[in-house]
Design a protein that fits this description.
252 residues, alpha/beta, D-Maltodextrin-Binding Protein, domain 2, five-stranded mixed β-sheet, 10 strands, CysQ/Inositol_MonoPase, metal-binding, Inositol_monophosphatase-like, metal ion binding, 3'(2'),5-bisphosphonucleoside 3'(2')-phosphohydrolase
């Protein structure tokens, strides 16, 4: 049997190639439409579900694009997938979207892969952690359309540069790739938005947690996991401290 991480990488990569073909072949009048978004979600989900059923038939699945059930709560192995993370960017013909494939096993993330089809790249949870350096000026990966007030205040307090980009996976991958130093999110997410990116980030030696420092937990009955920090480990304490101060001020 192919190793789980290699399998995750192959699935994410192949789904990404499928999506690139759909994106490339879309007529101009479909760009930015719900129809193109739905086609991408549907075809990628169909591919991933078929591959998992064939090669990992005994495992459970949690996917953004499939009906959820209670069987996964009793399973020891659960694949957590986002067939198309960043449908808006995908439908607009942009490159800053991703495909997420992660494996949760017996209480923890065990493997993960994030495909960045627009960059022809796949990041995985294999490999050794890197030696990270403390940045001279912090770069925060933020939404290109809706940076949250907390992140804007955080950037002002830290004199950080805001680096706008698309999907959640693409932003976390920017930290892994060294193009940003942190991704702080408080706008609401689900487990499939962060599972694979967090598995990849931790393998690279990055810090990942909830914004209040609590651990990220997966395969919960309610998959809503609304906030996230992925960052250079050398700035984690300072970043969490600043976030805590902002949240305390807001609560007063």
């Amino acid at each position: 049997m192919v190793h789980d991480t290699a399998f995750a990488a192959r699935l994410a990569s192949d789904a990404g190639r499928l999506l690139r073909r759909i994106q490339r072949d879309a007529p101009p009048d479909e760009l930015g439409t719900r129809e193109l978004k739905d086609r991408g979600d549907r075809e990628s989900q169909r591919f991933l579900a078929r591959e998992l059923a064939e090669h990992r038939p005994d495992d459970a699945i949690l996917s953004e694009e499939a009906e959820d059930g209670t069987a996964r709560l009793r399973a020891e192995r659960v694949w957590i997938v986002d067939p198309l993370d960043g449908t808006r960017e995908f439908s607009e013909g942009r490159d800053d979207w991703a495909v997420h494939v992660a494996l949760w096993e017996r209480g923890a993330l065990a493997s993960g892969a994030v495909a960045l089809p627009g960059l022809d790249a796949v990041l995985t949870s294999d490999g050794d952690p890197r030696l990270w350096q403390r940045p001279e000026r912090l770069r925060l990966a933020v939404s290109r359309t809706r940076a949250t007030p907390l992140v804007q205040r955080l950037a002002a307090e830290l004199d950080a540069e805001l680096v706008p980009m698309g999907s959640a996976g693409f932003k976390a991958a920017a930290v892994v790739r060294g193009e940003a130093d942190a991704y702080v999110h408080t706008g609401g997410q689900y487990e499939w938005d962060s599972a694979a990116p967090v598995a990849v980030a931790r393998a690279a030696g990055l810090f990942a947690s909830r914004v209040d420092g609590r651990p990220l937990e997966y395969n919960n009955a309610n998959p809503y996991l609304p906030d996230l920090v992925v960052c250079n480990p050398l700035i984690a304490d300072e970043l969490l401290g600043r976030v805590a101060s902002i949240l305390e001020e807001d609560a007063r």
